[in-house]
């Protein structure tokens, strides 16, 4: 029997915040500056009414909504032979993790087991895996935008406040003034909790036929079910709770959900060697069904609460069926050929478009064996060719599961007709597309692997991908459907690129080993075709509704930035609202927007180092992104002086407004000045460890280690983090924290 125990503790903190005005700097901006005698030195930009809204505090609201975090992970694994005959493993796990937001936390407890018995002299092998996981979350609202906006001259707490002692803007009668709510109060006064119980596992039967040992029959059954409950409660003394006539009435909502995934795979595998020819053939069938159900209440403390609005929604089953065939041929351990064919059917598409055919082929030629068999300096040389078609049917939207069928739904309690004393719900059609079909990607690649002196391995690849019938949720013509946006097969785009990697065993001695890995990827994406050749504008600006800062256009990269060309004065300062007449018609309007940069990097680089000296180990990873660009929507939508009072209250501003002196957001939000270089160099982690190989008189070994996650980022980008996962638009993100870790790996 063997026992492994792994422990890890981490402590994290945010690295940086967006540069906003401090409390004193904001007072100076609005009211002006004064000397010790009260004489005004410089004027402020605020009106007397705005000056009266200033407080005396100095609150960093970004700092106030975050905290230092703790992370603890324990895992115990016991391995051995059950009853002396069945290989088995039993594992227990516990994870506690705090999020940066004040109240965000996550706890998970797991137990899993694996059994691998075999029968009939290993002709029948059974693999059984089962896991139970219990997860408990306290969710935290995304209050980053409120923290950026809230007046930094006001405090977090106010003893006289009727809103549980938190500072809020309210009238003498206690009703709230129109504006942003205290983000710290929103976090602390919200009880948003969830529990999720999940059971998943699989059993696989692998039988090698007694009368035909070259043939194996394999059956795999998989099951995954998650049952969750979530409650969200807020008191009537929480200003961020729902309100009526600006008087909060609280929140009490409940939700239950079930997610179930069932899988059945069966296939026959034939293996046989005919002289120098090695053959493996496989045919199979796969069936997968995903089911979900959701029950929810509306806000039961609302004065408008109607129990009839509570509902249980059973989503349409998502079924995926596949027929699979594969053949692998190897000749003289020199020539390798793999042929695959899949025919998949998806319930997401109508009958005439339900099935897709996806072949692939791969060929490899071991040139080392054919040409350099006796050359010791060349340890590997292989040429690779590949071709394949893959299908995409996943749509990250439950409503899209039956999108090809016209479906109807009744309206909510606020969408009804009244005839006399009787109220009738409204029934209306959901959007749909009866012509939706598979998205297909065809890939071609050629590669070369080179090994030298058993110390250096190089790999080079060139690839070309063509995606057709791209599935996307895009705008539809007015009156063309029952929504202004819907899922369509909108066109095609292509990706071509180069990849290279090198793995170098730089040092190899009895006591010292140093391994270095480098990789680089360069690619270019282009839209080749759009429906009717029409542009698709998308990518919100973060200001109001309807504004877009990006575009899909034939001949350009997806999500290219679509902006105005900023003009500058002789001193190099940007002129507010002054843009180039790019089409030369003498009028500055929407026709003068132009495509300027895109989010795609020109090169992605990676570097990893692993060093071992006796019992000491040191490793780290670096990543670089070169040539990407970001639309800084935080500055585009906030860094203007007029944004200091979007409603009845004052709002903070990014300090970058001092660089442009822009006043009106609508005049500048689409300026190309907000398209910034997003290149960066990141060290993801660095870890130092030491192993005691003979602990407890040789009965165990233990490795102790410490490290840092998210070590540093070098970039010219002015925002919080250049690693944006929002198609290149930075509208504030949940910060990535830097974590110091300590851990132990114990083996008995």
Please supply descriptive tags for the structure shown above:
single chain, 748 residues, mainly beta, 22-stranded antiparallel β-barrel, 4-stranded antiparallel β-sheet, 9 helices
List the helices and strands and how they pair.
Blueprint: E1 2-14, H1 23-31, E2 32-34, E3 40-43, H2 48-52, H3 61-65, E4 69-82, E5 86-98, E6 105-115, E7 118-119, E8 124-138, H4 144-149, H5 183-188, E9 190-208, E10 215-234, E11 243-244, E12 247-248, E13 251-274, E14 277-296, E15 311-314, E16 318-331, E17 335-346, E18 355-366, H6 367-371, E19 378-392, E20 408-410, E21 416-419, E22 422-425, E23 427-429, E24 439-452, E25 456-468, E26 471-475, E27 485-489, E28 491-508, E29 512-530, E30 536-540, E31 548-552, E32 560-563, E33 566-568, E34 574-579, E35 594-595, E36 603-613, E37 616-626, E38 629-632, H7 633-638, H8 657-660, H9 665-668, E39 675-677, E40 680-695, E41 700-715, E42 729-730, E43 737-747
């Amino acid at each position: 029997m063997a026992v492994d125990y792994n422990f890890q503790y981490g402590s994290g903190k945010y690295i940086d915040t967006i540069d906003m005005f401090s409390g004193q700097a904001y007072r100076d901006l609005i009211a002006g500056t004064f000397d010790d005698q009260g004489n005004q030195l410089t004027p402020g930009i605020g009106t007397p009414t705005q000056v009266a809204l200033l407080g005396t505090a100095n609150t960093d609201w970004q700092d106030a909504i975050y905290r230092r975090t703790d992370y603890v992970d324990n895992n115990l694994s016991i391995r051995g032979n059950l009853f002396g005959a069945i290989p088995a493993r039993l594992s227990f796990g516990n994870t506690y993790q705090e999020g940066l937001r004040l109240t965000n936390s996550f706890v998970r407890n797991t137990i899993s087991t694996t059994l691998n018995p075999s029968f009939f002299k290993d002709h029948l092998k059974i693999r059984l895996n089962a896991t139970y996981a219990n997860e408990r979350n306290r969710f935290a609202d995304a209050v980053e935008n409120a923290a950026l906006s809230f007046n930094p001259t006001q405090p977090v707490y106010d003893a006289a406040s009727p809103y549980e002692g938190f500072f809020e803007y309210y009238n003498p009668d206690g009703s709230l003034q129109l504006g942003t709510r205290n983000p710290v109060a929103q976090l602390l006064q919200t009880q948003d909790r969830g529990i999720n119980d999940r059971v998943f596992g699989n059993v696989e039967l692998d039988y090698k036929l007694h009368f035909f040992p070259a043939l194996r029959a394999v059956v795999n059954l998989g099951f995954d079910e998650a049952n969750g409950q979530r409650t969200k409660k807020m008191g009537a003394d929480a200003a961020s709770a729902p309100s009526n006539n600006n008087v909060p009435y609280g929140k009490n909502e409940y939700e239950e959900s079930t997610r179930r995934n069932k899988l059945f795979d069966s296939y026959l595998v034939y293996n046989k060697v005919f002289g120098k020819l090695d053959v493996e053939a496989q045919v199979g069938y796969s069936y997968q069904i995903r089911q979900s159900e959701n029950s929810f209440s509306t806000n039961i403390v609302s004065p408008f609460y109607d129990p009839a609005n509570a509902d249980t929604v059973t989503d349409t089953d998502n079924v995926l069926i596949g027929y699979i065939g594969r053949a692998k041929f190897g000749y003289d351990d020199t020539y390798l050929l793999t042929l695959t064919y899949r025919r998949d059917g998806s319930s997401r598409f109508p009958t005439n478009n339900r099935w897709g055919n996806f072949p692939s082929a791969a060929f490899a030629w071991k040139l080392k064996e054919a040409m350099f068999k006796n050359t010791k300096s060349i340890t590997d040389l292989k040429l690779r060719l590949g071709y394949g078609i893959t299908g995409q049917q996943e749509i990250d939207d439950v409503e899209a599961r039956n999108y090809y069928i016209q479906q109807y739904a009744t309206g909510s309690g606020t969408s009804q007709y009244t005839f006399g004393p009787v109220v009738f719900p409204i029934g209306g059609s959901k959007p749909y597309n009866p012509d939706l079909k598979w998205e297909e990607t065809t890939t071609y690649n050629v590669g070369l692997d080179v090994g030298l002196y058993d110390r250096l391995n190089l790999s080079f690849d060139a690839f070309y991908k063509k995606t057709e019938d791209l599935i996307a949720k895009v705008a539809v013509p007015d009156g063309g459907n029952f929504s202004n946006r819907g899922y369509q097969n909108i066109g095609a785009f292509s990706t071509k690129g180069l990849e290279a990697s090198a793995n170098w065993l730089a040092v190899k001695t009895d006591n010292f080993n140093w391994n270095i890995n480098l990789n680089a990827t360069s690619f270019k994406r282009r839209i080749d075709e759009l429906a009717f050749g029409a542009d698709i504008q998308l990518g919100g600006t973060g200001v109001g509704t309807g504004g877009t800062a990006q575009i899909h256009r034939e001949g350009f990269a997806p999500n290219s930035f679509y902006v105005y060309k900023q003009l500058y004065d002789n001193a190099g300062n940007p002129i507010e609202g002054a843009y180039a007449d790019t089409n030369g018609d003498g009028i500055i309007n929407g026709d003068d927007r132009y495509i300027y940069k895109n989010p795609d990097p020109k090169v992605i680089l990676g570097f990893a180092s692993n060093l071992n000296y006796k019992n000491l180990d040191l490793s780290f990873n670096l990543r670089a992104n070169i040539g990407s660009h970001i639309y800084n929507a935080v500055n585009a939508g906030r860094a203007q002086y007029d944004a200091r009072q979007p409603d009845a209250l004052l709002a903070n501003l990014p300090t970058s407004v001092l660089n442009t002196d822009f006043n009106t957001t609508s005049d500048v939000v689409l300026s190309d000045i907000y398209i910034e270089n997003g290149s960066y160099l990141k060290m993801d982690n660095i870890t130092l460890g030491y192993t005691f190989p003979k602990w407890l008189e040789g009965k165990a070994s233990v490795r102790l280690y410490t490290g840092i996650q998210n070590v540093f980022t070098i970039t010219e980008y002015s925002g919080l983090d250049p690693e944006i996962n929002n198609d290149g638009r930075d509208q504030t993100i949940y910060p990535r924290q830097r974590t110091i870790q300590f851990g132990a790996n114990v083996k008995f």
